Amino acid sequence: MSNLWQHQVKFQFKKNLFILCILFTGILLSSIVSSYQIGISPPETYFFGQTGEERCQNIMLFSSGKAVKAEIFTLWKRDLGSSKVIKDYTLSEEEKGVLLKYPKNVLVREQENITLCIKPLFEGDYEGVLILSPENGAMGVGSWIKFQSRMYNGEEKILSYPSLLHKSVRGEKSNTSFFLLFLIESTFIEGAAVVILSLFMRSRLHGSQ
Amino acid sequence: MRNKLFYSALFLLFFMPFALAGDITVFEATVYGSVVSVEVPDIIYLGNISSGFVGEEKRVDIVNTGTTDIIITPILIGDHDPIFEKLYFSKRLSGVDYSFRQVGNFSLNMSKPSRLGGTNNDYFYTRMDLSDYTGSVPSGVSTLRANVKFVATSG
Question: Do both A41 and A25 map to the same domain?
Fold first, then answer.
């Protein structure tokens, strides 16, 4: 009887030891593999304005896993021409001649909204990238910045990226045409019903006479 | 009989527009804006290295957790030891994607995850090549840390 009891105790001890080993391994691994996610939205930000005029837009920063202390900075392209190769973006904001307002250091807990304000000193097209770079961690995320700035000459100048404008106009048109189609269709069906009813009534009247 | 058929047809015709109206307002969706998002490893250890030698290749895993195609570009940030300009990257260690390029000349294109909330994984290799390095190297054994950031931007 006592042998059986001792055997049971030993078995229980081994079982507990095994569970403890698994727990310790889990804790150890979780401290080694402590990666987290960071994100930025929108991936591209467009600004349009006049020289010396300040324009602002919201940029959303994300983190998951833990609160992330990060630095924010921008890099600017010297030459014109669309390129998404970061090595072409070598100038600082001072060198490029843009005045920027944004928090240089942030603590991102889940979701953080920052405002990026830009004020170009000269006329031209500006292309840059805003980079969110965590203090600890080998990765960063970036959002492309495109800015068109023109001198104010008394007339309102429309500065546009054709693709964006085209999209919004096309969207409105398609909605309008859909409702117009529905209206025509329903009127036609109701009209047909009235015509059939009147024909039927007439035939009934003729029949009774 | 004829009357029944007639009234049935009339009933259908009368209610058809309402049935059509009911068909158009049922769709609802929560639309998420595009997000560039990646999983961040804390540190990438390059191993032991000495002047005149080529370091071991280390694999760097990247996880795209966003909603857009991304380009990963390694860049050196701020003041750094010139030794880190001798960092090289290659997508793979064999085949057509085998080609070690110096920091600044390498980028990796990654497509977005196939479903919302999913991930897309890829990797590349990095190594330090000091075979022709003529700059100064710290004496003795020392650990150098560089601000090499792998920046993810939309593709």
Answer: no
Which chain B positions have a beta carbon within 8 Å of A35's beta carbon? 39-42
pLDDT tens per residue across span A107-154? 999 999 999 999 888 888 899 999 999 988 888 999 999 988 888 765
* ipTM for the predicted complex: 0.74
Determine, for residues B38 and A86 on separate chains, whether the beta-carbon distance falls below 8 Å: no
Give the pLDDT confidence score for residue B109 in this predicted structure: 94
Range of the domain at A77: 37-163
Helix (H, G, I), strand (E, B) or coil at B90: strand
Interface test with B, best of A34, A40, A182 (most B CBs within 10 A): A40
**Do both A41 and A118 map to the same domain?**
yes
Q: Please give the pLDDT value at position A138.
A: 85
Q: Does the B38-154 domain belong in CATH 2.40.440.10? A: no
Q: Looking at the complex, does the CB of residue A167 fall below 8 Å from at least one CB of chain B?
A: no
Residue spans of the domains in chain B: they are 38-154
